[in-house]
Amino acid sequence: MTDYTLLGWMVFLGGGTIMVLQLIVPNWQGACDVVTNFLPAGKSVWLTIDDGPDPEDTPRLLELLAAHQAKATFFLIGQRAEQYPELVDAIRASGHEIGCHTYTHPTRTFWLAGRCKTRRELDCALPHIERERGEVTLYRSPVGIKSIFLRGLLQQRGLRCVGWTIRSGDGLGQDPDVIVHRVVNNVRPGAIILMHEGYRVASAVRIVAIQRVLESLTRDGYDFIQPTTDQLRTVPVKSLTPEPTTTTKELLCN
Ligand SMILES: [Zn+2]
Fold it and tell me: Transmembrane ranges (predicted)?
């Protein structure tokens, strides 16, 4: 193998690796412009709740949010929205925003999806999520995985791809305290918090983790808001300055 051939293979494989990383790493820019945080007007965060609607969880979440005067964005799965249209209407009637979270929630193979499959995941979902009442402008990929056709298809439909600043881990964890601690210790104004509803969340965590996050951050003076389009930013999460949390503030004072 000549040096040039070797160099060619290195460039090819390196480029391929970068492309795959753009597709499978949730907040990696490139395959899409991914919103990772927002420019806060005050001490505010953006709570996002994925994988609904759910007949058990959604009504309880709407009550909890109302009790905390909090707004959230629900990224709904199209198939579930089709199954529970009354819950889609209830979310919208409560003043919360709704985003598209694909039709079937494909995960492992979505980064390999072709143009038709990617288009179906959007176009089959949107009618059930919009329900002729509201135009949806936000999209979140399942587990943050994107296909190479996503950017163009999102642009055509006026959708922004939203990632997150803080992954709560509620879809994997069994202990609500660990999940709440992770959120509280990483929170800062302008953070997007990723949480989930529905049967995939462990029963010990379901609802409880979101309730405790609402309680804890409200106590710390945070507002739960829906940022405007102008506030959305795609800067890398690691470059954001963390806000001292209650825990670190206490450590600094003691
Ligand atoms: Zn999801």
Answer: 6-25
